[in-house]
Amino acid sequence: RKFVAEGAQVLVADLNLEAALDVAAGVGAAARALRVDVSVAADVRTMMEAAELHFGRLDILVNNAGIGHLPQPLEGLPEAQFDRLFAVNMKAIYLAMREVVPRFKAANQGRGGGVVLNMASTAGVSPRPRLAWYNASKGWVITATRACAVELAPFGIRVNALNPVAGETPLLATFMGEDTPAMRAKFLSTIPIGRFSTPKDLGNAACFLCSDE
Fold first, then answer.
1. Which of 2, 42, 68, 115 is the most buried (most CB within 10 A)?
2. Is pLDDT at 49 greater than 90 in this prediction?
C-alpha cells in the first residue's frame, strides 16, 4: 500500500494466491497478484517475467518472504523443518538475485541501476534463545545483503536490509510459542521502545530505502 501510494506498480507474489489476490484488489489497479513459491527456481523466473510483462521493467525487488520455527532446543528441530527454513529464508533470496541482477545490470542502456531490499531481523543481530536456526537464517540474510551491496555498488545497484523486531504479524505466535498476555509482556520487556513493530513501520522504512531519496 505504501509503495503504491508513492507511485509504484507492485506485483504481489505469494504462495497463497487467494491472499495475494485479496491484497492486490485492496491496493487497486497498480497491483497484480501471482502465485509464487519463492523457493522454486522456475516460479521465481516466472515472477520476474510477469513483472516485466505487466509493468514493462523492473526497478525494485523486495525479498519479503520468510518463515520461522517454534521455540525449541537447537538440536530438536526436525531436518525437514530446517530444509524448509533454508529454502524460504535463504535460498529464495539467492534465486531472486540470480534472476534480477542480470536484468538490473542490463537496464538503462547498460548503466545498471535498481534496488534490492531484504527482510532480515533483529534475530540476526541479537539472537533469542531457542530460535537458533531462525536466528542463523537471518544472520545469513544480513551477511548476504552486505556482500551483494559491495559487489553491486559499481553497477549502481543498491542492496539494503531491514531488521524488524517482533511484530504484529502472523509469525508472532510462532516466535513466542504461544500468544498469551504473559508471553507478550515477556517479549515486550526486551524491546526498548516498548511495543511491537507494525507493517506500517516496515512499509515506511522499506519505501524510503527503495526510493531515490
1. 68
2. yes
> Is the whole model's pTM more than 0.90, yes or no?
yes
Find out whether 190 and 197 touch, Cβ atoms under 8 Å.
Answer: no
pLDDT 10s digits, 9-26:
999 999 999 999 999 999
For 210, counting Cβ atoms within 10 Å of its Cβ (0-12 exposed, 13-18 middle, 19+ buried), the class is buried
In this prediction, residue 175 carries a pLDDT of 65
> What's the CA gap between 127 and 46, in Å, rounded?
35
How remote is the C-alpha of 103 from its chain's centroid? 20
Which of 38, 134, 159, 209 is catalytic? The answer is: 134
Would residue 94 show up in a list of annotated catalytic residues for this protein?
A: no
List the beta strands (DSSP E) in the chain.
10-14, 31-35, 60-63, 115-119, 158-162
Please enumerate in sequence order all residues whose Cβ is within 8 A of that of 94, keeping only pairs 6 or more positions apart, or say none.
Answer: 144
Residue entry with cell 516460479? 43
Residue 118: enclosing H or E segment and its boundaries? strand 115-119
Put residue 145 in one of left, alpha, beta given phi > 0 → left and psi -120 to 50 → alpha.
alpha
